[in-house]
Amino acid sequence: MSFYIAGTGSALPGKVVSNEDLTAFLDTSDEWIYTRTGIRRRRVLTDETLNGLAVLSAQRALEDAGVQGKDVDLILCATMRGDTVTPSLACAVAEAIGSRAPALDVNAACVGVLYCMEIADSFIAAGKAETVLIVSAEAMSKLLDWTDRSTCVLFGDGSGALVLKKGAGRLAGVLSTDPDTHVIRMPNYEGLNSPYNQSAREPLSMHMDGGEVYKFAVNAMGRNIEEVCRLAGIAPAEVDWYLPHQANIRIIDASLRKFRIRKEKVLTNIAEYGNMSATSVSVLLDEYARRGTFKKGDRLLFVAFGAGLTSGAVLVEWGRG
Ligand code: UT7
């Protein structure tokens, strides 16, 4: 026995930044960004905190699932960096929703929510939890070098959440790492003014080799889709809805092309939000779930790749409580 998705929620910063807005301080254009990535605009944190967004999306998911904070058995937060290094973002969520459950952050970059689903699956299968809250929250705008036009135009901030309950909705899952710690990299603040550490410091912002990531992404997405479908004993064409990580519309198109999947089955919101790292798939899920897109028995396939280089796919049947 594993989990089914019992509720979803999301919360986004109020500030909308269009491609055109970026031209005020960057040598770029809406035409370049849109044709290369499919992004039109993104949300950016101003005076909101990431903790605040995470709590809001968690509360919305709990309400959707009809679950109270005190009834959650495990809280997992997918994030690359919360408002504080310690305590974790998950502890901030626990405090706000009145939960005493174990709470921890998971950093698997853009694949974070899929990693959390698989951890939740293990806790539930081991009899250690029946209700798990997964929250993803990313403040990408705080990690970027806003003078690097090849990277900063791609990302946005936001939070999404899912409540998983014990049930038979998860059909299969795969996770993996193709270790490479250079193509996407952001150093930590450790040793900033330690008198014992005089080694040269890397610039404190995210660096990415876009071309290398692109090649990895197309390959990894295809591989994970094939593998998760094989484990579930179905063909990729039998999946009802694809929820791919929203990094670049060209990556999504290129990785799904060989499966000849109808375009309407592939869900996207990248035009509105850009790449929100771990949060991309959870906001995508929440938006389409609230529109009533998914019917009982539909198969949803989540697939993602990210820094590390991590990748994975999880196949879920909608509504198998
Ligand atoms: O969650 C994981 C996150 N990472 C990704 O998903 C990144 C994957 N990679 C990509 O999405 C693409 O590689 C990019 C969108 C980052 C780049 O697209 P590209 O078609 O591979 O462009 P490019 O890097 O080959 O750059 C082409 C040109 C360069 O100019 P020159 O050297 O040809 O004169 C860049 O300097 O475009 C230039 N350029 C820009 N021009 C206008 C790079 N960024 C910009 C920009 N606006 N924002």
Helix content: 25-40%
Integer average pLDDT: 95
| End-to-end gap | 10 Å
Say which molecules are bound, naming each kind only once. Answer: oxa(dethia)-CoA
Give the helix tally: 10
Structural shape: globular
* Low-confidence segments: none
Helix/strand order, N-terminal first:
EEHHEHEHEHEHEEEEHEHHHEE
Strand arrangement across the biggest beta sheet: 1-7-6-4-5
| Count of beta strands | 13
Strand content: 25-35%
Characterize the main sheet.
5 strands, mixed
Structural class: alpha/beta
Q: Using the CA coordinates, give the radius of gyration.
A: 19 Å
Describe, in plain words, how this protein is organized in 3D:
With 321 residues, the chain is of the alpha/beta class. Helices cover 32% and strands 26% of the residues. Helix 3 packs across helix 4 (89-97) and helix 7 (210-232) packs across helix 8. The longest helix has 23 residues, at 210-232. The protein is globular and about 50 Å long. The N and C termini lie close together (10 Å). The mean pLDDT is 95. The structure holds oxa(dethia)-CoA. Residues 28, 32-33, 36-37, 110, 149-150, 153, 208, 210-211, 213-214, 217, 247-248, 275, 306 line the site of oxa(dethia)-CoA.
Output the keywords.
single chain; 321 residues; alpha/beta; four-stranded mixed sheet; 32% helix; globular
